[in-house]
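Dear support,

Our group has been running a series of protein-ligand predictions, and this particular one with EPZ is the one our PI (initials K.S.) wants archived with full inputs and outputs. We had some confusion internally about which version of the output was final, so please treat the block below as the authoritative record. The input we submitted was:
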Amino acid sequence: MDRIRIVGGKPLTGAIPISGAKNATLPLMIAALLTEDTLVLDNVPHLADVGLLERILGNHGVDVMIAGKRPGENGANGRTLHISAKNIVDTTAPYELVSKMRASFWVVAPLVARMGEAKVSMPGGCAIGTRPVDLLIMALEKLGAEIEIEGGYVVARAKNGLRGGEIEFPKVTVGGTHTALMAAALARGTTVIENAAREPEIGDVADCLNKMGAKISGAGTARIVVEGVARLNGARHSVLPDRIETGTYAMAVAMTGGDVLLQNARPELLQGALDALAQTGVTVTPTNEGIRIARNGAGLMPVDVTTEPFPGFPTDLQAQLMALMTRAKGTSRITETIFENRFMHVQELVRLGARIQLDGQTATIEGVERLNGAPVMATDLRASVSLVIAGLAAEGETVVNRVYHLDRGFERVEEKLARCGAEIERISD
Ligand code: EPZ
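Confirmed final output from the archive:
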């Protein structure tokens, strides 16, 4: 398995292009199941999770062409996918595939909406917490689907189609909101989604669905209204920039010092995180081309942050901020409220010399003068990249093992950082 080797201590300068968002690409690809016509997606990042979803969709009979090539062939950055779900040959999503990527469970919504039935494996727990699907099931039931759990599978049936309904989420859920939107788009009548997730990726999917002929209003607010339509058509849509990748590189620059333009980044997608960064003393400047992040000699101030649904500070940047705070001048506190077990990076950061104490859902980080390189490993994507950030500032050599996790969600991470002056390389065995 590949590893990433980093020798810390180099400031970052130059420009980093921000890719299309993983967490918009995945539901957008799944939305292609709603129509017989071709959905064309531009600005698709080249990530392992995208490749895996191509395979999962392929199992349902979906044909995915990448910029005129077949899946698996190499493509350039920001690829174009032509996705055609003309013939859905199988409405079952098996355990072997769904267990590899949780978001693939979301196929349940378009399959039951268009085909009247779906049998999708429960995704099960994962490294960051239990992550149930009860609210996704509740949303489908409110739209008239009959749900049974059989042998670890969720079987959803709506022989006469779904009908509009009122869905009120007791807790903000991104996956629940995607599910409700896709199902409601093809339901008969009006659906109202209350306490909907407001994450920008929800707005991006709603925009795409509207281009496909759906009638969705209010996406981006807590109340979304969907007028169901009988059929959806093809469309062309460009994936919005990845706010988590943006925030991650912003924190890398904050960590090493330097001056980097994050090209194509959009500040309104991560204002909560940029505000926290500004409090650390880093200069954040929105420009016509993206966001410029700069830090000169001055040290980092500590900040206290609690993760929250959008527009709050995102859980997907919690590990990266923690890496940054290991070098702050003072003590910071980070509280995780979205996932109960998202602290796997803590013990690895401690191996690099960080001082972190965990008490329930709150980590207290006492900034240290220096980190020391070491071999490290993490079992999820954002935790892995937090170790890269720490390695960029650590003295000596850090080797991040199990790069597979990084490749799931960060496109060419070592290349993007090396171009800005980091000493970082991929080692393939
Ligand atoms: C999405 O996951 C993202 N994944 C996650 O990114 C992200 O961390 C998360 O939203 C929160 O922002 C994708 O977009 C592919 P949720 P999702 O439903 O939809 C609870 C990454 O690193 N809940 O908003 O699965 C749940 O346990 C990933 O890119 C229920 O209780 O998250 C959690 O506590 C990791 N019942 C909270 O809601 C349910 O039925 C929010 O989860 C569903 C969720």
